[in-house]
Every structure is written in structure tokens, then in C-alpha cells.
Design a protein that fits this description.
The chain has 14 helices and seven strands. The chain is α/β, with parallel strands linked by helices and 456 residues long. β6 and β7 form a beta hairpin.
């Protein structure tokens, strides 16, 4: 690898899975009034009552309660005004009052049919009022009670229907008013323009709220898709990088096998012909395996990919436990207080894959500490026994005393994803989490034996 391996890498960032607790305060689900406002902006699906997706039962029942209040208020007032002020017959007054107000209950789930019923009833009422005894001097064709009920219906309709439907409703309202205007009795105060303007304003306001709900839902869906794609891309990038490094480790051993097999007849004179042919077959098989490996990984060695510094860096030896001390010294020179406890002989005890994985885990952990807990005291420990290598990186609170949890900043999540992939490659385990007094801890157990088939 290049000299850049001696420095803590700061490009990979912690996993987005650990980012959520810290980000929840700013981007989590709305609560209280905010959540209710989100429910108000989000329209229900066709045939579903308004607010059907609200989190609480009282919120789901609120549209029905509002509609019931309008019906209970407007029904007696409409009958009284039509009979008392307009001088309409009691039977007609009662029938028109029911027809003009009760359909508001249907508007909660079926606003368009409710609008058709109400507009039809209001139109019939206007025609009937042309023959009323005391219609002169009063509002026509839309009495005050009719205007209030119709505007309430516009709110229900605007929260549920698309813009094209709302435009059709608004134009139909104006058209009916214009047609009725030619039949206006003498001395009435026409309310056609009033209802037309107010209905348009409420439809526009409800449509804006509905559009905000649609936009926020689409943004949330795109963010969810982007999050999944980002996590998938991060995982693939880390696997590609591990594959390149694994290729370097395996290629070294395959090259040794090739050289030993080809040089065996010269190092061991007097070898029988069948044995020489066997060694030649081993050498040929090793060379063919190397060629296949290079062909399969050629895509992964494109320019700009990986963590190396170009072709020269890719040909350099891979780092291992023996270079962790240099990595820690470089981190200390960058201003981060780090203590190192490195068991003697750990680099000799670890096989190549474990040796490289231990170095990369320490490198990722120190890079995250530098980014998310600058100035925090950090301890790096690498120990081993006959079965495994234990790598522990733990940091305290940041320099200002604030407890810092890994992943408190934004990022693509390369760090912990890469650690998990490396630990899984060796058949080990990875334990990460915040410390009680603040800070973060990363502990990796890397077995010295080759991983079993189940672990792989």
C-alpha cells in the first residue's frame, strides 16, 4: 500500500445505523401538533375517511365530529331561516334543510358525491325560493346557511381531491350561480359572486395543504430509497476493497507455491519423472489460478478505486499489526492523544487476513475518533492468545467534555460497515457501542484459525 496507510483515513464514516439516534432530534417523526399537521396535509386513499392514517383515535374521529357539529348547527338554523325569514312552507323548509346539511357527513369519506348532493339541493332550494313570500330583501340564490355549509364542504373536498377535480367543482359552482342569476326575483341580494370567490379561496388553501402532504411523502420515499441505495453502495465498495486486498494476500501465497513447484526439480536432484510432472502440474495450476484471479478482479482495479494511491500503491505490501504503532504515532502527531498497548508477537501469530483486518479496524476506529471526538483520550489495545487476536479501540468524551457517540455526524457509513465485513471475512465478531461515561468502544475478536464454512 502507499504511504497514506500510515495516516488515519478520514474519508470513511460511521454506519448510518448508528447515526439515527443523534439525528432523530432534527429529522425524526413529528410529535404533537407537528404530527397532527402532517396528518392534516396527508390525504387519505380513495374511499378511506379523512385522517384515517392519524396515529390517535380522537384524530381519526375528528372529521366526523366536525361534520356532525356543522349538521347539528346548520340543520335547525336553515329550517328556521327558510320558514321564518323567507316565508317558505314548513315542509319545504324541512326538506331543504335536511338535503342541504346532512350530506356533509358523507363528505368525510366521499366528498365528491356529497358535493353533488349539496349542490343539487342548493339549486332546488334557490328555485323554490323564487316563489317564497318574503324573498325580497334577502340573500339569493345562496342564503347565509347555504354559504356556510357549502364552504365547509369545499374544505373536505379540497383535502381529498386532485387539482383538476377541484377546478371542475369551482367552475361548476360559478356556472350554476350564473344560470340562476337569470331567474333572480326582484329586490334580492345576489350572493353568486360571494360564494364563487370564497369557494375558490378555500379550495386553493386546501389544495396547497394537500400538495404539501404529497411533496413531503415523496421526499420521504426518495430519502428512504436513497438511504437503501447508499447503504448498498457502501457495502459493495467495502467488499470490493476487501476483495482487492485479499487478492494481494492470496496472490503472494500462490506465487510462492508456483516458485516452489517449478524449482523443486532443481532443488531436489534425482527426482523421478512422475514426481517432476506432478510438480509441473501444480505450478501450471497455480499460474492459471493467478491469471483467473487477476481477470476476475481487473474491474476492481480501475483508476481511482480503492484506498491505495494508484498503481504504485497497489503493488506495495499490505499493512498489518506491525504497522499499528506507526499509525498511532501519526494520529498523535495530528493532535489526538492515543495510548497503545501492543502485545509482543501479535503480528507473527496472525495469518495475513487477520493481520490486515486488525490494522484496518484500528485505522477506521482512529479516523472516526479524529472526526467525531477530537481531543478525546483514546486507548488502542491489541492482544492475542492461542486462538484469537483481540483489537479494542475506546475513546472518552470529546475535548469539551461532551459525551460523543460514534456516528454523530453525517457521512456515508463506510467505517463500521468495513469493520463488519472484515470481521466476517475472518470468522470473528465485532462489538461496538457507546460507553457509560461518554465516548465509544470498538472491540473485534479475530480467530487465528481459518473461518469455518458456517462462519463464512
Amino acid at each position: 500500500m502507499s504511504d497514506r496507510d500510515d495516516e488515519p483515513r478520514t474519508s470513511p464514516r460511521p454506519s448510518r445505523r448508528l447515526l439515527r439516534p443523534a439525528a432523530a432530534a432534527g429529522s425524526g417523526p413529528p410529535r404533537g401538533a407537528g404530527r397532527f399537521a402532517a396528518v392534516l396535509r396527508a390525504p387519505a386513499r380513495p374511499g378511506e375517511p379523512l385522517f384515517a392514517q392519524a396515529p390517535k383515535a380522537w384524530q381519526r374521529m375528528l372529521p366526523y365530529a366536525v361534520a356532525a357539529v356543522f349538521v347539528a348547527t346548520l340543520l335547525p338554523v336553515t329550517i328556521t331561516v327558510l320558514a321564518g325569514d323567507y316565508g317558505l312552507d314548513g315542509g319545504w323548509a324541512g326538506a331543504l334543510g335536511v338535503a342541504q346539511t346532512v350530506p356533509l357527513l358523507l363528505a368525510v369519506s366521499r366528498p365528491l358525491p356529497a358535493w353533488a348532493l349539496v349542490l343539487g339541493a342548493d339549486t332546488v332550494g334557490a328555485l323554490v325560493l323564487t316563489g317564497a313570500d318574503r324573498v325580497a330583501g334577502h340573500s339569493w340564490p345562496w342564503p347565509p346557511m347555504t354559504v356556510v355549509g357549502y364552504l365547509a364542504l369545499m374544505v373536505f373536498l379540497g383535502l381529498r381531491e386532485p387539482a383538476r377535480t377541484m377546478a371542475g367543482v369551482w367552475l361548476a359552482t360559478g356556472a350554476v350561480g350564473v344560470v340562476l342569476g337569470f331567474m333572480a326575483p326582484e329586490g334580492v341580494s345576489q350572493t353568486t359572486a360571494l360564494l364563487f370567490v370564497l369557494a375558490g379561496c378555500l379550495l386553493a388553501l386546501a389544495g396547497v395543504l394537500r400538495g404539501l402532504g404529497d411533496a413531503q411523502r415523496r421526499i420521504a420515499e426518495q430519502e428512504s430509497i436513497s438511504e437503501a441505495e447508499r447503504a448498498r453502495r457502501t457495502l459493495l465498495e467495502e467488499r470490493a476493497r476487501i476483495a482487492r486486498e485479499l487478492h494481494d494476500v492470496v496472490a503472494h501465497h500462490m506465487s510462492v507455491i508456483t516458485v516452489q513447484a517449478e524449482s523443486a526439480p532443481y532443488r531436489l536432484p534425482g527426482m523421478a519423472e512422475p514426481v517432476q510432472e506432478e510438480f509441473a502440474a501444480i505450478a501450471a495450476g497455480a499460474r492459471e489460478s493467478l491469471g483467473e484471479m487477476r481477470r476476475l478482479l481487473s474491474v476492481l482495479r480501475s483508476d481511482g478505486a480503492g484506498s491505495g494511491g494508484g498503481a504504485d500503491g497497489e503493488r506495495a505490501p499490505q499493512p498489518g499489526i506491525g504497522r499499528i504503532r506507526q499509525l498511532v504515532e501519526a494520529t498523535v502527531r495530528a493532535g489526538q492523544p492515543v495510548e497503545l498497548s501492543l502485545a509482543a508477537g501479535a503480528e507473527r501469530a496472525a495469518p495475513p487476513a487477520v493481520d490486515l483486518s486488525a490494522y484496518r479496524i484500528v485505522q477506521e476506529a482512529l479516523a472516526n475518533v479524529v472526526r467525531h471526538a477530537p481531543g478525546a483520550r483514546t486507548r488502542v489495545s491489541v492482544t492475542h492468545d492461542a486462538r484469537e487476536v483481540l483489537v479494542v479501540v475506546a475513546n472518552g468524551p470529546s475535548e469539551d467534555g461532551t459525551p460523543v457517540v460514534e456516528g454523530s455526524g453525517g457521512g456515508t457509513g463506510h467505517g463500521l460497515v468495513g469493520m463488519r465485513e472484515r470481521v466476517r471475512l475472518t470468522g470473528g465478531t465485532l462489538d461496538t457501542g457507546p460507553l457509560p461515561g461518554g465516548g465509544f468502544r470498538v472491540a473485534a475478536r479475530l480467530p487465528l484459525d481459518a473461518p469455518t464454512e458456517e462462519a463464512s
